[in-house]
Amino acid sequence: MLDISVIIPVYNAGRFLEKAVQSAVHFEEVKEIILVEDKSTDNSLEICKKLADGNSKIKLFQHPDQENHGAGATRNLGIEKATGSFITFLDADDYYLPNRFNAEKEIFEDPKIDGVFSAIGVEYLTEKGKQEYLTKFKDSPLTTVNYPAEGEEVFRGLLSLTPKTFGTFFHLNALTVRKSAIDKHNLRFNVNLRVHQDSDFNIKLAYHCYLKSGIIDQPVAIRGIHDDNRITKIVQYSPQYNQRQYIYWKSLYDWASSQNIPEEYKKRVYLSYKSFDLSQKKGLIKYLNIIVEGLKNPDILKTKYRFNYYR
């Protein structure tokens, strides 16, 4: 039977935390739930203590200095504290569904599989949050990939290098991975990214580890949409969006440059990184840089971010 550590980073999630924990604690496969509290300003710490006192499966940790370090560092601490053979993640304002580990029970019988990912759904908790989400993501009932895949096809799909559209994202709430695989490749979240730590982690994970899709046509977890979801507040191709995308792709570019990976993959990451680098420039300098880069790398004009240059 699987023995799973569920890592829940906690920051100002007092309204939702108990539901998240209760959705995970009852699974026979769940060995422990690791709450990592990140200096919340609401009553989250008190709720964490109450939950941990009430169930031996639930363990509470804070950063050594008890300060706020962000989601990336908080998940990293959870990985360090995990004792299960498998690791999953759950955001404190989300929750698992009863089928959460159905695919894992069968797929992980194959020892070559390092990780399994499935689909998640959405629940609108506030009207404002709903409108912000629909403005950015339209009416997407599932966050999922478009077809079953495994191995290198997953990595290629996340970089948009497959002949048909794979989908550029799967959510941490629906990822289960062997802890030994994470430790073998020293995979951790980039603490310098305030957003997109999950996408950055997933792409690196997909390169180093053998991932396989699980249940992709129905949700295994639910993401709560409310007023405080940070990712929905960023307007696409706004200066803030461009800056955060630049930092994200710069992280991947630095990683790709340090790895002995095929040139095709390095180039794909570079083009995305460079497109957002160019978007930071202004005026005549911006257009001169676009011309120079276009002459050196004509493929940059084919990236899905190409129209970003002119905004």
Automatic annotation (TrEMBL):
Q: Which residues form a coiled coil?
A: none
Q: Where is the Glycosyltransferase 2-like domain?
A: 5-127
For the keyword Glycosyltransferase, the answer is yes
What Gene3D superfamilies would the database entry show? Spore Coat Polysaccharide Biosynthesis Protein SpsA, Chain A (3.90.550.10)
Alphabetized, the UniProt keywords read: Glycosyltransferase, Transferase
**Family annotation (InterPro entries):** Glyco_trans_2-like, Nucleotide-diphossugar_trans
Going by the entry's taxonomy, the superkingdom of the source organism is recorded as Bacteria
| One Pfam family here | Glycos_transf_2
Per UniProt, what is one GO molecular function of this protein?
hexosyltransferase activity
- Name of the protein this chain belongs to: Glycosyltransferase involved in cell wall bisynthesis
Q: Which organism is it from?
A: Chryseobacterium soldanellicola
Ranked from the top, the taxonomy reads: Bacteria, Pseudomonadati, Bacteroidota, Flavobacteriia, Flavobacteriales
